[in-house]
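re: ur question from earlier - yeah i can do the single chain one, its not a big deal. heres the input i used so u can compare w yours
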Amino acid sequence: MKKYIFLVLIVFVLTSCEKEKNYLREGNKDFEEKHYAEAEDNYRKSLNVDSNYVKAQYNLANSTYKQNKEDLFNQSLLYYDKVLSKDSISDTAIRANTFYNRGNTNFKIAILDSIEKGDRFNDGLKKAVEDYKQTLKINPQDSSAKYNLSLAMRLLKQNQQQNKQKQKKDDQKQEQKPKNQEQNKPKQNQDNQRMLEALKNNERNTLEKLKKEKDKKIINNRNNKDW
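and the output i got, formated as tokens:
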């Protein structure tokens, strides 16, 4: 009876192993045909059988990256991180490719913020730079990693310079603002003075006019009085 149970367990384990590999193979076929969403499905099925299956994790990250959708880039990063967390990976090519692909993912996340060029732009480029450097540590001859590293560093430097120039202009504007306010004070005072003078002149003219009308009335009354 014990032998029978043992054999059943072996068959079950072998079947499970074959199942995850079958899903992986199906996913690979879909990937080669550029059906990336279908490939993603099969890789997820493979991981449902064995959640630590490194090849399925790596391929799932690649399939979500290839769909080129903003909401899937974080999924790509999640599974690239899982692959890189395995210290037992003996295949240096997979490790180097994972760093390179994660660098590309971080680069794309940065480019999504290329108009505003805010924190996501800077953070994405910095992470991409580090990933490309890690790739080159493993494979110094990787020309694609060299090119992408150079591009990411150039964009990062340009953005930092632009931010410095912007900050300098903002500081100058802040410095000029109090000066302009001080310069405008005499003008405002002059304008206020003119308005007061105009008001006074208007009142004076009105008083003179009223006085003339009063004097005229008195004269008329005198001329028209019965003696």
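The domain at 1-89 is CATH 1.25.40.10 (Serine Threonine Protein Phosphatase 5, Tetratricopeptide repeat). not sure if urs matches, ping me
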